[in-house]
Structures are given as structure tokens and as C-alpha cells.
């Protein structure tokens, strides 16, 4: 694999966020080591991909643009990050060719949400993408509003912590305790 090929293909910038400094090659697994199966990334993107506990959601707003790349390796990395961030809106818009989809799904990714089972107030198992109803008025600390009983939260995300989900209420992404939710 050649840095020159990737620099030429990317125009000398990170293929995800567009940063132009501290660029390096990232092989998209499973990989044969070719430039077609690698992407050029800045240190910030690469560090957050390799260390899921350091992910800054604000940095990954760049995926709104990079997910449309014509390069399959870039598409795979964007897909995997959107999946990790549980961004159901962008995942729903992203189309991958079948062979690229297979490659994207081939990552042996033991994510935290895979290892924790989250149940609602009735004991029903919740999964990413489900819709839930709030069963009790909940004061949202730090956001200055109350999530009202009966509010439906669509496209929930699992954060890997038992008894918690993430969802959007009043346009704000918040963490909710599953004991105050009922699956729709």
C-alpha cells in the first residue's frame, strides 16, 4: 500500500473529516493491505476509531459528508462509525453495494451494547432502533426541561450500560433509565 496513492486519492486530507495534518494510513479490516482497502485518516479520527471509549460525537458530524464517498473503504469506515454512534438517521440513508455491505458487516465487533441486555419496565428486551414511551414525568438534569409521561422516543440507542438507553426528547439526545420506559 502506498501513501502516495492515498494522498492522491484523498487530495491530501483525511478521508473522513477533511483535516490536513498528521495523516496516516488505516487498514480497513479484514484487509489484504492494498490501498483500495485502506483510508487516509488524521490522528483524531484514527484514535477514536481504535479507542471507542474516546469517541467525541461532535467530531463525527463529518460523516454527513464522508458517508457519500465513492471509495468503498471510506464507506465501510463511515458505516461502522455511524453504527457505533447509533446514528439511525444517517444509517437509514446510507446505501452500500452488497459486497461493500458484507465487508462492513465482517468486522468482528464486540461492542458494549452487544454484551448488555436492557429491559423496559415490563421486562421486555429493548434493542437499538426500538421506540419506547416514557411512563413517568422525568426531570432532565442539565437540559432544563421535563420529559413528560406519554412521550414517545423513537430510534433509541443502547449505550452499553445496563438499565440505560439513549434517545431524543425535545430535540435533545439524553440518557434515560429503562425502568421508566415501556416498549411501543
Give an account of the 3D structure.
- By secondary structure, the chain is α+β, with helices and mostly antiparallel strands.
- Helix content is 28%, strand content 23%.
- The chain has helices at 3-10, 43-50, 63-66, 72-85, 88-93, 98-105, 112-115; strands at residues 23-27, 38-42, 118-119, 125-126, 132-134, 138-140, 145-147, 152-153, 157-158, 164-169, 172-177, 181-183.
- A three-stranded antiparallel sheet has the order 8-5-12, with no helix packed on it. The protein has a three-stranded antiparallel sheet with strand order 9-10-11, with no helix packed on it. A two-stranded antiparallel ribbon has the order 1-2.
Question: What Rg, in angstroms, do the CA atoms define?
Answer: 19 Å
Count of helical regions: 7
Domain count: 2
Q: What's the β-strand tally?
A: 12
Average predicted local confidence, pLDDT: 88
Strand content: 15-25%
First and last CA, distance: 49 Å
**Helical amount among residues, as a percent range?**
25-40%
Secondary-structure-derived class? alpha+beta
Spatial strand sequence of the major β-sheet: 8-5-12
List SSEs in N-to-C order. HEEHHHHHHEEEEEEEEEE
* Biggest pleated sheet: 3 strands, antiparallel
Low-pLDDT residue spans: 108-113
Rough outline: elongated
